[in-house]
Design a protein that fits this description.
Elements (H helix, E strand, L loop, with lengths): L15 H21 L6 H8 L3 H7 L3 H24 L8 H16 L5 H7 L8 H21 L5 H23 L5 H22 L24 H9 L1
Length: 241
């Protein structure tokens, strides 16, 4: 398997010193993307911050997009490992709210040092799709969320699952952006993260209630349910069968 950090290079480093320089350029690019945003970042700014001639940067990366793509490879590789680790501990007895708090808590913990992540996610939300790397990162997150919905809501129609995953990944963007905001105090960030998780949980509970939930027959329900999910008793029974 290739090294994700080198998949978008113009040339592959053949010596340890060159490989270290490439990693340094990526680390600096992450800092620049975090500080000024993807759109305002430039290769000249990255090179200046890394204290190298811009020609040195171009030796490895043809443009800003290649830097973003290489960083995205880093993040996606980490997210795959995190996702697989979390799902192996998801049992039928765990309530969705508890799972969400655990997942988001780990996601924030694992990505807090990945400084360009929020900027790349935000870039994917800009009309016109300015960042292909950000879009790829968003799609990677959506894929994991679709898998989670399939697991907890068996048989859900694809169009409902995909639409819900798109909503949830947008809310996840807000969580990651809040967690990365160093201008706010730790207490404020924790409180806001908890609020966003509550929004995610309320959305899931409203869209995927159990089949016997009153919202299915209430014509004045503020949110129309989309598909019935098995309740905790049904999940436990299925696990024991």
């Amino acid at each position: 398997m290739s090294d994700p950090s080198t998949d978008h290079l113009r040339n592959r480093p053949r010596q340890a010193r060159s490989a270290a320089r490439v990693e340094h350029l990526l680390d600096v690019a992450a800092e620049v993307f975090e500080e000024v945003g993807y759109d305002a970042a430039t290769t000249n700014l990255v090179a200046a911050r890394a204290d190298v001639p811009v020609g040195t940067l171009y030796r490895w990366f043809p443009d800003k997009a290649a830097l973003a793509e290489a960083l995205t490879d880093r993040y996606l590789a980490n997210l795959v490992v995190l996702y697989e680790d979390l799902l192996q501990w998801l049992g039928p007895e765990e309530r969705l709210g508890d799972f969400l708090h655990r997942v988001i808590g780990r996601l924030v913990e694992e990505t807090s040092g990945q400084r360009a992540l929020p900027a790349l996610l935000v870039s994917a939300m800009v009309p016109g799709g300015r960042s292909a790397a950000g879009t790829r990162l968003r799609l990677g997150l959506e894929q994991h969320i679709r898998g989670l919905i399939d697991m907890r809501v068996p048989g859900v129609p694809v169009e409902i699952r995909d639409r819900s995953a798109e909503v949830l990944v947008t809310l996840a963007h807000l969580v990651l952006a809040e967690a990365a905001d160093t201008s706010a105090g730790e207490e404020h960030r924790a409180a806001m993260t908890s609020e966003y998780i509550d929004v995610m949980l309320a959305y899931l509970e409203a869209k995927f209630p159990a089949a016997d939930h009153p919202s299915w027959t209430d014509p004045e329900a503020p949110v129309r349910p989309a598909f019935a999910a098995p309740n905790r008793a049904a999940r436990l029974a299925q696990a024991d069968s």
